[in-house]
Each structure stands twice: as C-alpha cells, then as structure tokens.
Amino acid sequence: MTINKYFDNAATSFPKPASVAEYISKYLTESGGTYGRSAYPRVLESSETVEKVREKLAEKTGTAKPENITFTPNATAAINTVLFGLNLHDCHVLISPLEHNAVMRPLFEICRRSNVSFDILPHGPDGLIEVTKIKGAIKPSTRLVIINHQSNVNGLIQPLSEIKREAGEIPVLADLAQSLGHTDIFLDSWDIDFAAFTGHKGLLGPTGTGGLYCKDPGKISPLIYGGTGSRSESFEMPSFTPDKFEAGTPNIAGIYGLLGSLENYPEPAHSNEDFLELIDEISRIEKVKVLRSKDAQLQGHLFSITHEQHSCSRIAAELYSQYGIEVRSGLHCAPLAHKTLGTFPSGAVRFAPSPTHTKENFRYLYEAIRNICK
Amino acid sequence: MRLLALFRSTREVIKAERLCRAEGISCKSIPVPREISSECGIALEFSPEDQEKATALFTRESVSFSFHRV
User: How far is B49 from chain A (nearest CA, A)?
Assistant: First the structure.
C-alpha cells in the first residue's frame, strides 16, 4: 500500500478528490461559458454552478445569506478588501498574537499611510487570547479586531464566538484560511462581521479559489473596480453583493473544481484522537519541542516542531531525502506567530495532515521524526 | 405582448429561475432586450398570466425584480 508522505496541507492540500480535476476538465473541454453577461445555455450552466458553489460555501461557513459570500482569488485578497475597504485612518486596531503576513503586511501599510496603530490582544504562551482581558484592551479609537481563527504555526483555534461577544460593536475580521474544512464555522450565530477564506486548503479545492464574507457589505468599499454584467450603463460599481466585490470574470474553472471537492469530500481516514496521539508521541521524543495548543480541545489540524540542536531546515531536508516526507520549514509567512511562540527567527518544521492520511501514515511519520531527531 | 422580468444581478436571475422551476412556473432565459435596458445580462420571459404567481414567489423569497411588458 502506498504511503501518503505529503504533510504540507496547510500550504495547499494534496491529494485532491479525483472529481476536482474531472470537474475542471469538464468545464474547460465541454461546458465552457462565462458567468452572467449573456443568456445562452452555456452561460446559464456556468452561472448556475457558480451560484451552487456560493450556496455550499454559505452552508460551510454557517451563514443563511449566500449573497454575502463573494469569490476572491484567495484569503489574502479577501483580507486586503476588508482592510483597505474600511478606509481606516487615525484609529486603532486589535489583532491576535498569531497573525499571518496576509494580515500583517496590509495592516502595516495602512499604519504607515493613515496614522493607524495596532496592539496585540493579551494572550497565553501558546497564543490563546485571554478573552476576559479583551474589553480592557479596547480603546475609544479601536475600529477593528482581527483574529486568525486557526494558527498556521501551532494549529491553535481561537474562541471566535467569545471574542466577538467581548468585542461588542467593534467589527471582527476572522481569517478562516486554515480552519475552514477542518473546524465547524458559524458566522451568523457567532455574529462575525467579516471573514476571509480559501478553497485550496481544508476544503481540498484548487488554488485560486477563495472568498470574502461581509455581514454588512455597505461597510466597505470594493478593492477592485470593473465590469460585473450588471448595471452596465453606469461607471459606478453596484452597491449590492455579490457584484460589489466581484469585478471581472471569476475563476470559473477553479469554482467548478471546488464544487468537485465539496461534493466528494473524503471520509477522514484517521480520527482526531489518532492525530492528538501522534502529537503526544512526538512531544515525548527527546530534545524535540512541539508547538501546539495547550488545550487539546483547541488543537486544529496541524502542529510544528523545533529541536534543541538541529535546525528546522535540516530536519525538513532529511525528512525528504531519507523518507520522502514533504513538509514546510521556516517562518511560514507568520513572523508574528513565531515571535509569540518564541521561535523567531529560527522557525520550525510544520506538519499538516490531510483527511486521507491513515494511522499507519502517522506511524511512518513518527518513526521518521524519531530517527532524524535522535 | 411579452412579459419580461429583470433582476439586478446574475445571482438573482439564477435564483429566480431555480425558484420558478421548483414551483412549476414556466420561464425562459433571454438576453435583456435593448428597448428595456442597456443592461448586458439575462432576463426571464414569462407567460403574462403567470405574473401574479411569479410576483408572489419573488416577493416571498426576497428576490429583487421588475416586470416589463414589451
């Protein structure tokens, strides 16, 4: 039996369900057709498919309003849309301690341009936000709270619902890039204001598919302006969603592929207990430190390790050269998270399984790490 | 006399067409006629006698629409 040695699913998922490629191929070779703009059957089929995927994504993210989900190329584009679209200036922003550069870089640019400052929310050593201290961190000028829902370094899942409750009227932007597909999301009942997500990680879809959710689309301006196939007589962007944030032809081929994964998502070949057991076993290897959530209930589907003597790049190189295991080492585009966890600038080696990994695959990974790290 | 419904977005047309199909209201997708609008999108054509049923359906399902007779 072939061993699945790909443990870099937090970067992008692999393997995809076979239907991802099949649906893309069907679109490219048979159905074709753009989204809206004309009324012949080829267009209607594509448009119907795009809307079907929008509805499935609404279901996955726990919102009853699919029109408030708009397609973007990735989570980064969605985050940029919110941060620049809010027209933040002369104000204050609160962020989680485990933010990715998808947030930090646009936020840094806004701070530089527009007299905006930010603070990191009070947290424990694993980055878990201290919910009871949120109110104390809010200033009169605080206009946004940004939360990385699941860390791409230690996998910690932040309690989004409780955080929003404490933030009150201040809008919360949730970065769901790592959590969607692995963790249940309830945007409506959690009362989340903005959310960014991607289709190619936990949802097992193709790259180039992502999305933005806005509870109240009137609160932000579009990032990209252009044709939508609606209100074509006007030089102004439509004010309604999804059109407001969907200028230009969407990635229809990618959206077909995403439908392929959503309709044929594999049954997990391992349990969450198997995964937690793997982390526990690795944490018992001498000289190895595991970056994980202190509370197992808040552990998402990835973790990282460091070694007292070996660099993370050496471990990653040896895992591949000796065992064919594919992982990501370094800072994972999340220097703030590594600073919070005490692993900056040396970094760590990250392991992110897919639903297709078996307990036997985990055993293979464990043996490889143990042999390399001894 | 033809009865046409216009919608503000592709999503709304697709939603409306799907709702009509489920409710057994016959309609046909056509390009928006130039005499109604310079819009480049999709309109739905209905039998004039179905206007009341379609209006009730779209109102109930919060679909933004406008009917035009051409």
Answer: 23
